[in-house]
Design a protein that fits this description.
There is one protein chain. The protein has 233 residues and is α/β, with parallel strands linked by helices. It has one domain: Rossmann fold. Helices cover 30% and strands 22% of the residues. The longest helix has 17 residues.
Length: 233
């Protein structure tokens, strides 16, 4: 099984840093205590998309510095697209949870359009059991992001990003245990609910790969950005 966590680290997340730190620590503690052997991939995004760690939980890198280095815009579609591409490039993990945490609306992607992602999602659904949870800071965040229609559950965390991280952890646990989990704040959404004034930016496909180092603050291995995808050009 495979758990993918996508976290917004755009400038607007500045007020949520402490919740992200505490919530991520709790998530790691809970999944480690439950002895999860799932593959665990952490993707962060702002103007860029970064794969921060990709291993089993026990070998997860220290990513707190990167997760809370907030700046830039919101390349949400590119982050989802990167996760979708990772899924399609492998066949060993068919049961997958994908949890997205964001406080804003798409405004910066250059690689993927929503229509492209719609088509990719259809391909994924043919061969994979993907359970996606889209967690927005509020209902406007959910209604303002058409990608929320891809989710099995859309959840408003009412500005509480600690709650969002706890929801992410519970979603992972329930999928692994084969149990049903319905978090607080579920928003029932259809295509007619999506804010029609939200415009998908013009995209062009290109990517720049780079790596970086960051200092440790958790008892995990030192983190490095595995891949960074430049969406600013």
């Amino acid at each position: 099984m495979w758990d993918i966590l996508i976290v917004d680290k755009s400038a607007s997340m500045i007020h949520n840093i402490e919740d992200i730190k505490k919530g991520f620590n709790e998530l790691m503690e809970e999944q480690t205590k439950q002895e999860s052997e799932n593959r665990f991939t952490i993707i962060a995004f702002n103007t860029h998309v970064e794969i921060l760690s990709d291993d089993i939980f026990a070998n997860t890198l220290d990513v707190i510095d990167e997760l809370t280095n907030v700046k830039g815009l919101t390349s949400l579609l590119d982050a989802i697209g990167k996760a979708y591409d990772l899924i399609l490039k492998q066949t060993e993990n068919k049961d997958i949870t994908l949890t997205v945490i964001t406080d804003g609306q798409e405004n910066s992607s250059k690689h993927y359009t929503i229509s492209e992602l719609d088509n990719i999602k259809k391909e994924i659904d043919k061969d994979y059991n993907l359970k996606m949870t889209f967690i927005g800071a509020d209902k406007d965040c959910i209604y303002g992001n058409p990608i929320s229609l891809h989710a099995n559950l859309s959840v408003s965390c009412e500005g509480n990003l600690l709650k969002a991280m706890r929801t992410a952890s519970s979603s992972m646990s329930s999928q692994r245990d084969g149990t049903e989990y319905t978090p607080e704040g579920v928003v029932n959404i259809s295509s007619s609910d999506i804010n029609s004034t939200v415009k998908t930016p013009i995209m062009k496909r290109s990517s720049t790969l780079s790596s970086d180092n960051a200092s440790c603050c958790l008892p995990f291995k030192k983190s490095r950005v595995i891949k960074e995808f430049n969406t600013s050009t």
